[in-house]
Fold this sequence. Notes:
Layout: E1 6-10, E2 15-19, E3 32-41, E4 49-55, E5 71-76, E6 82-88, E7 110-119, E8 126-133, E9 137-142, E10 145-151, E11 170-176, E12 180-191
Antiparallel strand pairs: 1-12, 2-11, 3-8, 3-12, 4-5, 4-11, 5-6, 6-7, 8-9, 9-10
Amino acid sequence: GHGGLVRITENSTTQTGIATNVASIYPTAARRIYFEARLTLNDTSNISSCFIGLSNDTETPIGTSSGSTDYVGFFIVSAGAAWSYGSAKDKSGSATFGSGTTATTSASGETDAASSGTAHTQGTMQTFGFYLSNLKSVKFHIDGSHVGTVNRLQDTDGTYRNIADDGALKPMISFIGNADTVDIDYIICVSDR
């Protein structure tokens, strides 16, 4: 970008990333949220996992023994994989993205899908964005093209099951690699007050 890039370097196979040091966002039925980030993964053969979006866990969101239980965003879970997108409320923290309990109208969990796009091309900037509309749905896009929508699942008592509405979420990017880098051009997250 015009103002330069932020490079995050991973020197081992542990998780690293950037969580923006901003106030948390609380999704509500009266609030619209827009998130967008432009970045590139510089070695897709070594980056085994990556998350881009809003998460309630800003330390180790890609956990196998702990991690995000509430999130909205994009993820890959193996080197060279295509991007997936999803949303979760009260997903088991021990489940990696895409392998949590599937949400139903009577049980909280995760709703996710693989995007129709291809795997990330290393060294190529891509833009990832989503629009969360008043807890009704989340529309996901990559490079300006709509790749999918997650619609809310709601219990008969009004409880939301797959879109977090009971806690703070923060913008973040996190990945696991081995001596790899991610270059970030920008992260934008805005919402109604």
